């Protein structure tokens, strides 16, 4: 059983979809359960023969009935887990493993696995987050991180023992490595593309400022942002004020086409776990400029240009280097693609999860 908050378009949601369908192809009976809502991946999962269930939790901000509704949802989830009797429950993201671990313990699930897919920065401003996390971790057999940086952060902040955590990189489907017809973006300028939700921590404001700096140096560009979020209007106003040619293209299913249209891809995040967007750009063989945060450093070590976060000047300098040097651009793209082919395959990701589940079950039975 794979447990996640929802199935909207997002990096972790995509990995749950890829893992669930990959496990199903390997002959594993797999169910996906969402805590509060579904999304586009529900239809895709069911089309692939994977059952999807919704526990119908609600946000605490929805009013005085939120608590009783969530208690009912917890009871509903407990009944579901007892009925399906999974050998392994793997919960992805904070809310899923905080809720899922005690439910799985009550349902006597043999193996409970929790996913760590981001640094602990977001938990620092949430009262009680660490306490709930530590309680759920006590009920968890193993933790899977999707980057060494994420694993080291969990060990340092949560005090996890090294033997209780493993690193399994995200996986990319074969289609990510195939050529794609470039997206029809009409411009005579070089295209700088960023694929990320339009949220403050993704650093888009810094990226727009860097694009404005490039223009003052005589290297204007067309900045394409794929994604949606609360920053959209703010970013549009900022670009208009600075005279940046900004294209907000929204959520896209044709990311490969956008990447193949780009002269360079960029991720300006203030903090990051393991970026699927960077992985996809590597598979496409694109030169990448990104901030040196989280798992990005592992992905682009010697295979991309890394700059400090929240530094528009450094970001503009790196973009200028790539846009002004075709040989450097091609070399970075080749190196990134070669590493992705060897380390980020979907089959490897699925096999490593399956091997971990089997090992944990064997250890459980031997006790």
Spell out the blueprint of helices and strands:
Blueprint: E1 2-4, H1 11-25, E2 31-34, H2 40-47, E3 51-54, H3 66-84, E4 88-91, H4 94-106, E5 111-116, H5 129-138, E6 142-145, H6 148-158, E7 165-167, E8 191-195, H7 204-216, E9 222-226, H8 232-242, E10 245-250, H9 255-261, E11 264-267, H10 276-283, E12 288-291, H11 296-300, E13 305-307, H12 312-324, H13 326-343, H14 346-366
Parallel strand pairs: 1-2, 1-4, 2-3, 4-5, 5-6, 6-7, 8-9, 8-11, 9-10, 11-12, 12-13
CATH class of the largest domain: Alpha Beta
Radius of gyration: 21 Å
Class from secondary-structure proportions? alpha/beta
Counting DSSP H or I runs of 4 or more residues, the number of helices is 14
Q: Poorly predicted ranges (pLDDT <50, ≥5 residues)?
A: none
Protein model, in words:
This protein folds into two domains: 2-171 and 346-366, Glycogen Phosphorylase B (Rossmann fold); 175-343, Glycogen Phosphorylase B (Rossmann fold). Helices cover 47% and strands 15% of the residues. It has 14 helices and 13 strands. Helix 4 (94-106) links the parallel strand 4 and strand 5 (111-116). The chain starts with a strand and ends with a helix.
């Amino acid at each position: 059983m794979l447990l996640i908050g929802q199935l909207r378009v997002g990096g972790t949601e995509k990995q749950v979809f890829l893992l669930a369908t990959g496990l199903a192809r390997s002959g594993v009976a797999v169910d996906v359960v969402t805590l509060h809502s579904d999304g586009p991946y529900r239809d895709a999962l069911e089309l692939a023969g994977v059952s999807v269930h919704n526990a119908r939790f609600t946000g605490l901000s929805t009013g005085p009935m939120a608590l009783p509704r969530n208690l009912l949802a917890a009871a509903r989830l407990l009944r579901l887990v007892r009925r399906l009797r999974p050998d392994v429950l793997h919960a992805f993201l904070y809310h899923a493993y905080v809720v899922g671990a005690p439910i799985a313990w009550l349902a006597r699930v043999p193996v409970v696995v929790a996913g760590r897919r981001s640094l602990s920065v977001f938990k620092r401003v949430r009262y009680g987050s660490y306490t709930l996390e530590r309680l759920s971790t006590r009920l968890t057999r193993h933790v899977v991180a999707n980057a060494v940086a994420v694993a080291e952060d969990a060990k340092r902040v949560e005090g996890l023992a090294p033997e209780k955590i493993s690193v399994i990189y995200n996986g990319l489907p074969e289609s990510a490595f195939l050529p794609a017809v470039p997206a029809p973006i009409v411009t005579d300028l070089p295209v700088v593309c960023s694929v990320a939700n339009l949220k403050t921590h993704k650093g888009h404001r810094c990226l727009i400022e860097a694009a404005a700096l490039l223009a003052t140096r005589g290297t204007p560009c067309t900045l394409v942002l794929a994604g949606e979020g609360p920053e959209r209007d703010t970013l549009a106003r900022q670009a208009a004020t600075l005279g940046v040619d900004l294209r907000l293209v929204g959520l896209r299913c044709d990311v490969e086409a956008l990447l193949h249209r780009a002269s360079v891809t960029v991720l300006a995040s203030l903090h990051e776990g393991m970026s699927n967007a960077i992985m996809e750009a590597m598979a496409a063989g694109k030169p990448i400029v990104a901030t040196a945060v989280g798992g990005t450093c592992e992905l682009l070590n010697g295979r991309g240009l890394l700059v400090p976060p929240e530094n528009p000047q450094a970001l503009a300098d790196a973009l200028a280097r790539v846009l002004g040097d075709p040989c450097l651009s091609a070399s970075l793209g080749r190196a990134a693609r070669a590493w992705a082919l060897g380390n980020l395959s979907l089959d490897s990701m699925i096999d490593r999860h399956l091997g971990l589940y089997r090992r944990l079950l064997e250890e459980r039975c031997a006790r």
